[in-house]
Amino acid sequence: MSFIDAQELRKIYQTRSGPVRALDGLSLDIEQGQVVALLGPNGAGKTTTVKILTTLARPDGGSARVAGHDVVRDAAAVRRLIGASGQYAAVDEDLTGRENLELVGRLYQLGRREARRRAAELLEQFQLAESADRPVRGLSGGQRRRIDLAGALVVDPPVLFLDEPTTGLDPSARAALWDVIRERVHAGVTLLLTTQYLEEADRLADRIFVIDRGRVLATGTADDLKARVGGLRVEVTVANDDDLPRLSDAVAALTPNDTVVHDRTITAALPDPAGALLRIIRCAQDAGVELHDAGVRRPTLDDAFLALTRREGVA
Amino acid sequence: MSSNSVSGWLGDVAALTRRNILGLRRSPEVVMFSIMQPVLFVLMFNAVYGGAVAIQGGDYTNFLMAGIFAQTMVFSSLISGITMAEDISKGIVDRFRSLPMHPSAILVARSLADLLVGVCSIVGMLITGLIVGWRWNGGLGALLAGIGMLLLFAWALSWLMIALGTFLSGSQATQGAGMLIVMPLSFLSNAFVPIESFRGWLRVFVEWNPVSALVQCVRGLFGNLGTAPVPQVWPLLHPAPATIGYAVIAAALFGAAAQAAFRHRLSR
Ligand SMILES: Nc1ncnc2c1ncn2[C@@H]1O[C@H](COP(=O)(O)OP(=O)(O)OP(=O)(O)O)[C@@H](O)[C@H]1O
Ligand SMILES: [Mg+2]
């Protein structure tokens, strides 16, 4: 059995306008020491999954285990092993950042002195030393977020769950967070995170689960997922909007499917991208279409994500 | 619970109570209003009813004070419910729940921290009462016993509000629903007017209202009962055991309800 193991999770929220299927048979298998990213559009079920794995919500069907402990029956054992930070910063506004972290330390059963030492250390690591002694009420969104994240790291738990950890952080805070987290990963921590920044998942995750509508659509390394949407692609950008239809027709003639037009850019996956690029450029020249940019590039995780989660009726 | 987990639980309660008190200190408005409100009531009721309500063998100011004390305890229990609901809606309770702590400590710490608000408002009222001419006719022991009864009652009632706050999980809703409980509880009692002023079924409600027993008990301990005959119903004839009984039953019942609400509502 995997270190984090979820089988056929189902979660249905009862709302005034009827039941909402947040999870619809979602399964995960994560090995110890892996860094795993959950990717998915808004409402895909990422937060719900994290809530179930951190014992905050109960699944309506299926089961999940963290380090062998069932998240419903052995919730207390699971809580001893995990550090968690939710999508929205949950810090006490009346307390200072330092007091918040000391409180978390005390509730992890640390001694008073150890809780204090640990809080000071984390405040330093998260570049919060200056605002540490002001009530959180008066701090910025990113500062609160960092206090919340620091709360997940108070006791070096072997498993970390971070729901959109870098949302709202400035580039330097983001880099600092990743330094802290990389350090933990080196020490063998298992990390499950969600993010909307695919580049981040690309660089940091050993494994990605793409989910939508409460199910796993695809899983693998970032390279696996990119490979699934095909090889190199040709991308040309026209200088004038008016020229777009003429050129896109020409590109579509070369490849009947898999042509994406976005803004003034046409992207197409083609069997012989270099040759195709030449032909498109020649075709543009003949038609007197001015090109802004043209080239061959590898598929990005964004391409894979969009291709996998493209829904009918939604662009 | 092993002895280790008992001390762990106590540690959790202590850490959270400290957190709650710090919170109350940093939002002094809550405490300030809960002190000012009874002061206002003392002055208002004294002025409005002072001349109109005749108290057999006593005067209205002395009669009124036990009533205001009790009413204040009832109202201040609302704070427990509202702060509980706020912690839930802001996700703070979820943060605590993902930690290896004892969830019941969250509830117990809430009920304890708000006792402190009760103590503060009692001090405020004692001073105001003495200024408007209230005197207690008994020893210091009786006065302290009366205060003890008030705090016990406040603590028990705060469990009802904590259960309500947990169940509703929104501070506005909790405040609204709580008002529907504390208004009749405090006004349909012997707190402000003698029990003889109520008739029919209302009279029955007033006689069995736990607040009436509390008021009767505290009024007796303060030596402010006057010479009016005591209504012939058990809780008013034996107000001390009745008050303790009501409080114990309420704490047990609503404590269990709060735990159940906490377990079931929050992990939906
Ligand atoms: N408490 C709730 N009550 C009702 N429906 C809910 C609740 N929480 C989530 N949902 C619904 O469940 C589905 C999954 O929500 P979830 O929060 O897990 O999505 P997400 O993948 O985290 O999205 P986002 O990227 O926007 O954070 C959504 O359709 C959402 O509307
Ligand atoms: Mg989410």
Describe what this molecule looks like in 3D:
The complex is a heterodimer of chains A (315) and B (268). Helices cover 37% and strands 27% of the residues of chain A. Chain A contains eleven helices and 14 strands. In chain A, strands 6-7-8-3-9-10 form a six-stranded mixed sheet, with helices on both faces. Chain A has a four-stranded antiparallel sheet with strand order 2-1-4-5, with helices on one face. A four-stranded antiparallel sheet of chain A has the order 12-13-11-14, covered by helices on one side. Chain B has helices at residues 3-26, 28-49, 60-89, 92-97, 103-131, 140-168, 171-187, 200-208, 210-221, 234-237, 239-266. Chain B contains eleven helices and no strands. Chain B is 78% helix and 0% strand. The longest helix of chain B is centred in the N-terminal third of the chain and has 30 residues, at 60-89. In chain B, helix 2 (28-49) runs antiparallel to helix 3 (60-89), helix 2 (28-49) crosses helix 5 (103-131) and helix 6 (140-168) packs parallel to helix 11 (239-266). Chain B has one domain. The model of chain B has no long low-confidence stretch (mean pLDDT 90). The complex binds adenosine-5'-triphosphate and magnesium ion.
